[in-house]
Amino acid sequence: MAGPPPLPSRRHLLTFGAAGAAAAFLSGCGGPGSPPRPGALAHVGAWAPGPGDQSGARRGGHIITAWSNEAQSYDPAIGWDLHSWEAISTVLHAPLYQYAGPADGPAPHAAAAMPKVSADRRTYTVPLRRGVRFHNGRRVTAQDYVWTWTRVLDPELASWASSYLLGIEGATEVYEKKAKKVRGLEALDDHTLRIRLSEPDILFQALLCQPYMAALPKEEVERLGAGFSRTPVGTGPFRITRYDSKRQRALFRPHDHYFWRGTPLIDTLEYRWGIDYPLQALQLSGGKVDVLGEGLVPSQAARFTADPEMRERFVHPVPVRGSQWITTNHKRPVLKDPRVRQALSWAVDREQLTRVSFGLSDPWGCAFPKHLDRYRRTARPYTHDPDRARALLKEAGVGRLRLRFLHGTQDPWPLMAQVLQQQFASVGVEITLDAMSESAFELATSKGEGDLYGTDMYIVLDSALELVTTCFTSDAAQNYTGYHNKRVDALTAKARKAPTVEASNAILAEVEKELTEDAAGIYIGSLNFLAARSPDLRNYQMRGETGSYYDRLWVKR
Amino acid sequence: MSTVPVTPPTATAPVATAASGPRPDQPRPAARATARTAGRRLWLTGLCLLGFLVVLALCTPLAGSPYTIHTDSLTSQGLPAGVGENGHLLGTDAIGRDLFARTLFGLRATLIIALTANLTSVALGAVVGLVAGFYRGWFEQVLMRIVDVFLSVPTVLSGLALASIVGRGTTGIIIVVTALYWAWTARLVHGETVRLRGRGFVEAALAHGVRRHTALRRHVLPHLSTILLNVAALNGAAVVVVGAGLSYLGAGIQPPTPELGNMLADGSSSMTYAPHTLFVPLVLVIATVLAFVLVAEGLNRRNPLSERRSWLDA
Amino acid sequence: MARRIAVRILLGAFTVLAVVLLTFVLQYVVPGDPARSIAGPKATPEVLKEIRGQLRLDDPWWSQLGHYLSSVLQGDLGTSYSNDRPVLSLILERLPATAALAAAALVVELVLGGLWGMWEALRPKRSWLLATVNVGLLSMPVFSLGFLLLLLFGYQLPIFPIDGGSGPAQLVLPAITLGLMGSPYYANVVRDSMREALSSSYVRTAVSKGLSRRRIVSRHVLRNIASPVTTLIGMDVAVFLSGVVFVEKIFAWPGIGQMQTEAFADLDRPLLTGTVIVAAALVVTANLLVDLLRSAIDPRAASEAP
């Protein structure tokens, strides 16, 4: 899978190799007496990221995952925080496609094969896997998908994900309550789903991997009502058996009819929440919990990464694609001048800055994450050059500059902000710091308060397009600072309609060059993720896009 | 409970009385004199300690900048320098700032807050308590019900809420602490005033046609002054600790400004890999609180009228 | 007596009502946008508008106040923004855990403070031990003490479980943290009142009558201690309600303290104000009970209070 192979062969491999590959891998680790699994033999790595050591696989065991907060909701249309996200992505619900190898794109999951795309790239035909059942035992049909997606679009549900589905023909009418049915959504038969888009969208494929696109059983949603957000019924490898908000834990057991036969291997999965990060770290190293759901936060990472033995035992670096930057408020006159933004970009010593994140970000002066697949970068990253920064500020005619920097209370921002303050001070820019909770931060940005904002973003949709369309285009949902760049808008629209990933990425490289040269933000780092898990776990796999895959791991006796 | 050894009460009684401080209803001149000497000693010790801390806080210009980041002082794994390492007397904090400089600056900020917040909260509480206790009537009822409301609202949470309105700078935290603490002083002063008013000398003055203001100023205030000083000193101790708590929850003095409270909060998150980041500020916090408590205690002992129970035995 | 009780209850009710009004004002001054808190940052303006309508956020303030007061009086504290559940049921669900923590902490305080205070009272010499520990505990912020105990007895010497459970074993460390903070106060009060009792004329009379030591202590001395200790317990309700905010966070104890910090971070106004109201009601009730209890134990106290 190395290098950029032509698309057809890749799709071919994924379509025919992936399903069988998973089966092969799983048959290798199933205990005695587990039922035979479908599919032919193929290379294991094609669907399971990092196959790990399969020898000695065994059934049984109880896994505990610690979280800092309660999930917003296990209803895939509602939850979006890390805790909810993992629960809906890899535990309770099974999306049509799931991310394969450590750096690979989607492979069929609840779908039988990759979708057939029409010549105009507007029609997607998804063959559904047979034998997929909900936790209540009922078989999943294409109608369930039609119902579920229409539900996401229901304005009464107020799902944050609804905007992602608006590219489907007729979705806007449903969202605006002008229609009951989505025109572009059709169940051809029980096992074939056809989607028609208003215009071609290279991101749509990735959208099908999202948990809010997984089928939900209408009868259970209606029966459970508000309870569906806590004890939902889905198609994922685990079903929820207890949700104890009083004692802050949820218990999951394997789904008997999970379509990857023979998995999951563990007996029970338990989520515990309300655990502060220092306690989480002590619990993990003391053997009280097995996985830290949110991974290591910088202040705790220091404890684990500084000691080679601890690092070896508990830390599991996960390749993710994420950027860390400082959003500039383009509504402020002084920040409208690109020279000022460029000056700030040159003023940042990224090496010094990212030291305080203890390995959770690498210094990087470009808009997009450092490592992207099949992507040829043309932008030149910013480096530390205070003289140039001073010269640019002088050129822009800026004497004394005072800016207000808003950032989250979460690591590493409070520390990073203090380092930044010193770095900016050395080129004559004074920033005041304002740490606030996530909710307060959202509120402040929506009101346009502040000048600089600490921002992190992980890419979930498999393309840097997501980053641009979420934060940098004029109509982006998270573009709260009024950044407006016609060239970026035009190129992004073009990249979205591009026929292949490679073509799209070539255009995106231009977008990145523009964003970087224009200093739309002050780019400081490329994010890493340090997963933390007990050394007793075997075949622990995790993706930044989804979370830990509990279906395939086992516990060392 | 009955297993506790009981020494013969006859033997214990006099000693116990002497040690438990003077009581106006059973005056023992000799015991009171000893207590007063001991009180003076405590008071002086507390003042000396407080003075030493103030001098230390005034030495900040000698300590260098508390903001300069010495990245090169961090270890190769990025951990802070320990005590005495790399030319840092007390090591560095998590991002490589000199802990000695930060501690001194932090001490200064803490002392400023403690002293100011004290003054404002005690003054406000004293005025309310005095007025309510002396003038009585419906006025008293209204004031004391307000005091009740402030006493029943949970402090930490109201502190957080208040901090989000008044801001999180030095002024903000002074306002928060004042709002949280004035009611305690008010209740104490109110009770004391009511008691004093019932004493013969105030009633006699009033009966002789002395105006109420004058009676308040001449006869009640002097008796209250020691109590007020005492409350202020104990409050000073509480303010340091409360400030630390608010910082821990993110509503105290904001970084990068060093303050002992936010240094304690920072230290708590880095203590697992660099314990000195917690213990250095903790030692100074303890010293500050000790100074305030000693002064309070000393004042308490010196006051022959005080009936307050002692927090400290000595 | 009955009249006094009635007045006290009325005053207590007034205090709680005032707190309710105060929280209503607070909702307006504390920054926050309820609609956004509910829908999350990715919500569209249409969704936000829909929610604002549902919450009557665009009504005039007096209409909102009337609505708020009438629902609070009916026991409806609103619906949590972040959780979408009735606030009262959320609080009642968490309250037992906090109550258990407070009760355990109280036991720690009574046992530690009581024994220590008695020991101090019965020693003929003055002790610097109490003074030293007093200052140490007075100056130690509760979160620092919590972290130290967690690290020492949860991790380095794994005596007490730190697995985030909510059973009696997991209760020990947080209870000790809270209890340690309060025990010096109890030790002081116990010591002072015990000394006072031992030197009083009735104990002297009892001794001269030849009563046994055990009997003197249980009959006369403990009775003298009961009243001030009860007062202290009443005050502890307020202290605990503040302390749990830190302790529950550190030890992952699922009580209302933890819920409060979360509600504050999430700008979840109904939950935040709901906990403030419930906490105030608890403090008022505790003070009322203590007051009545004191006058039952010691009739002299009845004449002091208003």
Mean pLDDT of chain C: 82
Number of helices of chain A: 18
Biggest interface, residues from each chain: B-C, 62 and 71 residues
Summing up helix and strand content along with how strands pair, one would put the structural category of chain C as mainly alpha
Describe the structure.
Chain A is 31% helix and 19% strand. Chain A is built from 18 helices and 23 strands. The longest helix of chain A has 23 residues. The N terminus and C terminus of chain B are likely disordered. With 306 residues, chain C is mainly alpha-helical. In chain C, 80% of the residues lie in helices and 0% in strands. Chains in contact: A-B, A-C, B-C. At the B-C interface, helix 1, helix 4, helix 5, helix 8 and helix 9 of B face helix 1, helix 5, helix 6, helix 7 and helix 8 of C.
Secondary structure elements and their pairing?
The complex is a heterotrimer of chains A (557), B (314) and C (306).
Chain A: H1 7-29, E1 62-66, H2 82-91, E2 97-99, E3 106-108, E4 116-117, E5 123-127, H3 142-153, H4 171-175, E6 185-189, E7 192-196, H5 204-207, H6 218-224, E8 238-244, E9 249-254, E10 268-272, H7 277-285, E11 291-292, H8 298-305, H9 308-314, E12 315-318, E13 322-328, H10 333-336, H11 338-347, H12 350-355, E14 361-363, H13 386-395, E15 401-408, H14 413-425, E16 429-436, H15 438-446, E17 452-458, H16 464-471, H17 486-497, H18 501-517, E18 521-527, E19 529-533, E20 537-538, E21 542-543, E22 547-548, E23 554-555
Parallel strand pairs in A: 1-10, 1-11, 15-16, 15-17
Antiparallel strand pairs in A: 2-3, 4-5, 5-7, 6-7, 8-9, 9-10, 11-19, 12-19, 13-17, 13-18, 14-18, 20-23, 21-22
Helix pairs in contact in A: 11-13, 17-18
Chain B: H1 9-19, H2 29-58, H3 99-135, H4 137-152, H5 155-166, H6 170-198, H7 200-207, H8 212-248, H9 260-270, H10 276-302
Helix pairs in contact in B: 2-3, 2-10, 3-4, 3-6, 3-8, 3-10, 4-6, 5-6, 6-8, 7-8, 8-9, 8-10, 9-10
Chain C: H1 2-29, H2 34-39, H3 45-54, H4 61-73, H5 87-122, H6 128-139, H7 142-156, H8 168-198, H9 201-209, H10 213-251, H11 256-265, H12 269-297, H13 299-304
Helix pairs in contact in C: 1-12, 5-8, 5-10, 5-12, 6-8, 7-8, 7-10, 8-10, 9-10, 10-11, 10-12, 11-12
